[in-house]
Amino acid sequence: MKKKLITLACLAAAVVVLLGVYAGAKKNNEQRQDEQTDTLAQQAEPKYSVVTYKPEEIKSVNVSTSDDITFLVKDEGIVIDNADMTLLKPELVSLMFNALINVRSDNLVGEFDDPVEKERYVPQGGAVVHYITADEETELFIGNETPDKNYYYVNKQGSNEIYTVDKATCERIMQKVTDLADLTLDKLDPNALTMLEVTQKGREDLKVSFDKENKISAESHDKNGLATLVMHSPIENLLVYPYNIESGLLYDYDKFKLDKMVELGDEKYADYGLDDPTMTIAMADTENSVTLRVGRKTEDGGSYYVTPYGNKGVYTMSENALAPFFDYDIINFIQKFIALHYRYTLSDIEIKSVYGDYTVEFKEEDGKTLTEENGNYKDKRQEYINGKAVDSDAFTAYYELLVGLTFDALKEYEPTGEPQAEICYHLLDGSEDKVVFYDYDETFFAAVKGGGELKMLINKQQVKQAVDKAKELLG
What we know:
Elements: H1 2-44, E1 48-52, E2 58-64, E3 69-74, E4 77-80, H2 90-101, E5 102-105, E6 107-111, H3 115-119, E7 127-133, E8 137-145, E9 151-156, E10 161-166, H4 167-173, E11 193-200, E12 206-209, H5 215-224, E13 229-233, E14 238-240, H6 242-248, E15 260-263, E16 279-285, E17 289-297, E18 303-308, E19 314-318, H7 319-327, E20 346-353, E21 358-363, E22 370-373, E23 376-379, E24 382-385, E25 388-389, H8 392-403, E26 409-412, E27 421-427, E28 432-439, E29 444-448, E30 454-459, H9 460-474
Antiparallel strand pairs: 1-5, 2-3, 2-7, 3-4, 6-10, 7-8, 8-9, 9-10, 11-12, 11-16, 12-13, 13-14, 15-19, 16-17, 17-18, 18-19, 20-21, 20-27, 21-24, 22-23, 24-25, 26-30, 27-28, 28-29, 29-30
């Protein structure tokens, strides 16, 4: 037993020694790591401080290049004199200011007493940074690039020392105000648009919106649960689904962004064609909206000058981003129904044509009524054609034919002669939706809705079939 106790005691002592050795080794290792970290930090820190100020020491900093910028330190923060700060990105302003007040170098080229020798590196006419603090005024001169193009030579006022400062820092110091622009536009969801308008010279306006008061939009929303838009121009009362706009017009929407700022103000709008825009684009979803005026093309032809609504700046946007708005074809994003109405919204339909005249009516009688519960409609009204009740089952197929009239194409066309047919849908709210058909050629009618130049071309056989089916139901 005594031997076992001695053995256990020895083991315990050995463990203590090992723990001590481990703890000591760990401490030494951590100390070495700390020393290495300090050494690396010292190595990363440039050796020479050319200009170093704290922000609170600065009254102003002026950068004289092709575009003078004066930074002012005020109670509300760092601002740029005579600049609309709402058009600038705060992060970029801060980065430039910090670069100006912390100019450091890894390399002292040498001391040059001879002005001629000094000017080989830092000639007159380069960028000049003028610092004003509570205690002093001084200047920093940025000269030529080094032969390897990775650095610039710099010299501080009153010193004969020439340093090299990395190119990235110097180019940040020499930025223009326009380089600090905030280029972000409000983000829109192309699949959830509530409004789209495109006004373009030499072309009819495109106007599409969600209007809960519009019966066509409300009908589709109530029936299908879709946020259906309605076209108001160039053709009235055509259905447009947001996902069709996304695929037919906004398929490159990720390119719809500002590339760069050209001017900070609106004084030169005429120079860029923005006083009389080539095109205006307005879009909105449930959260945000964007309105953009488009001026003339840039000199290189790859972009256009633009300005967002409420923003006085002049920017560029690529031709590729704007091409879908210049070249759109509404046939790619509209529903091709002449007049799509659900029967529970109608009181009657009048048809006048060279094939015959018919009036379709929906009447409540003998328990056959129109009811609504929680947005669901049940239309059991009796159907009449020219005053005669018709079989409800047979009428359903006829009604689908009548409201399912679709056009094949859109053409600019000025109708001549007398109308060949007219269909007028009278809605229960007292409004009406009228389509008038004119001869286009042997195959098509030109259907007119509203006063636009575009006409819908519909096959004459569709209209004739709608009339023939009514005649058939009358027996």
